[in-house]
Automatic annotation (TrEMBL), chain A:
Organism: Natrarchaeobaculum sulfurireducens
Name this protein carries in UniProt: Transporter component
A Pfam family hit: DUF6691
Transmembrane segments: 12-31, 43-66, 87-105, 111-136
Key word Membrane present: yes
Automatic annotation (TrEMBL), chain B:
Coiled coil regions in record: none
Entry keyword annotation includes Transmembrane helix: yes
Record-annotated membrane-spanning stretches: 22-50, 71-90, 161-182
Native source species: Natrarchaeobaculum sulfurireducens
PANTHER family given in the database record: INNER MEMBRANE PROTEIN YEDE (PTHR30574), SULPHUR TRANSPORT DOMAIN-CONTAINING PROTEIN (PTHR30574:SF1)
Keyword Cell membrane: yes
Location(s), subcellular: Cell inner membrane
Protein name as it appears in the record: Uncharacterized protein
Length: 155, 185
């Protein structure tokens, strides 16, 4: 749906500026340091709660408030909606697998990209791992989908 | 007086490095998300970049659904990397300093040509193995700390509340277990 709307000349610059602020915030909050995340998970420093919920409060006020002012986004014409996903077993299994990885390494996707930005080249091990993991699940789920399609066309 | 002293003691205990940089950083992460959302209507998360970028090099059917968004997701991720680099060039390198920003408390700082870079001491095998699980888990579980934790929780989405609770509790258990086994850093 987004592809038809991306032609606005300000679309890419705006996404870039949003990413800049997002990444600066991750650096400023020390989330680009896996050790700080591990300290949180080991109950040595609860500061991470301020980062995640501080960010969620800002997005929450915006997501719920903007709809009172206008119905669609100026650059894309996309209707303002909340980010809602279907709650199913995948959310729990996937969340559990992500949790093991997060607890083992102290990294998550956004913070890992930011970590590269603060000069932490060692994080490339983590980013490489993420691509390997995303690829493995892609191969697995592609074969599930292809088998599903083959079965339904055979019916 | 005693109550104030107790309050300060609890705060110092729970937040040994202070609160300001966490709170300000969190507000900026939210602001970055909001800038994109207000302009485009897209509540952006960071983990979809992995699959959308794989669509450039792999023809697996799973990745093709992200072809339409892959270009802007690359731009978003480059923005994150450069935004953090601006932090490194300013606060981390000491060009700008503030009492609200205590500077790195972990890892290793190294100066290269006037720029201070920060390096983790977490072992590469932990990063790589953790990364693989993150790559599988965030994609299967429909989001990560930004997609579920920031955009989803901000949307009051029940799937995201469940997702965040699940990965938070499992991560705490895992980190405690790894630490108890003597793996550090």
């Amino acid at each position: 749906m987004e592809s038809q709307h991306e032609h606005h000349p300000l679309f890419m610059p705006l996404v870039f500026v949003g990413g800049l602020i997002f990444g600066f915030g991750l650096g400023f909050s020390h989330m680009a340091q896996p050790e700080v995340v591990l300290n949180f998970l080991q109950f040595a420093d609860f500061g991470l709660l301020f980062v995640m919920f501080g960010a969620a409060v800002v997005t929450g006020i915006t997501f719920f408030g903007v709809k009172r002012l206008r119905s669609e986004a100026p650059l894309t014409g996309v209707t303002y909606t909340r980010r809602l996903k279907t709650l199913d077993r995948n959310v729990i299994f996937g969340g559990g697998i992500f949790g093991i990885g997060w607890g083992l390494s102290g990294i998550c996707p956004g913070a890992a990209y930011a970590s590269l930005g603060v000069g932490n080249v060692v994080i490339l091990y983590g980013i490489a791992g993420m691509f390997v993991g995303a690829y493995l699940q892609g191969v697995w789920r592609s074969s599930l989908a292809d088998r599903g399609a083959a079965a339904s066309s055979a019916d | 007086m005693a109550a104030t002293g107790l309050f300060v003691a609890v705060i110092t205990d729970l937040f040994p490095n202070g609160i300001s940089h966490y709170a300000i950083g969190g507000l900026l992460v939210g602001l970055g998300t909001v800038v994109i959302y207000l302009g485009t209507g897209i509540p952006a998360g960071a983990s979809t970049f992995l699959e959308s970028t794989l669509s450039y090099v792999s023809d697996q059917s799973r990745f093709q659904q992200y072809r339409a968004s892959r270009d802007w997701r690359v731009v978003f991720t480059l923005g994150i990397v450069l935004g953090a680099a601006i932090y490194a060039l300013t606060f981390q390198s000491g060009l700008v300093s503030s009492g609200l920003q205590p500077g790195a408390t972990t890892g290793e700082l190294r100066e290269i040509g006037g720029v201070t870079i920060w390096l983790t001491e977490v072992q590469p095998w932990r990063l790589f193995l953790g990364g693989i699980l993150i790559g599988i888990g965030t994609r299967l579980g429909k989001g990560c700390t930004s997609g579920h934790g920031v955009c989803g929780v901000g949307s009051a989405s029940s799937a995201s509340f469940v997702g965040v609770a699940t990965f938070l509790f499992v991560a705490i258990g895992t980190a405690q277990l790894v630490y108890a086994l003597g793996v550090s850093p």
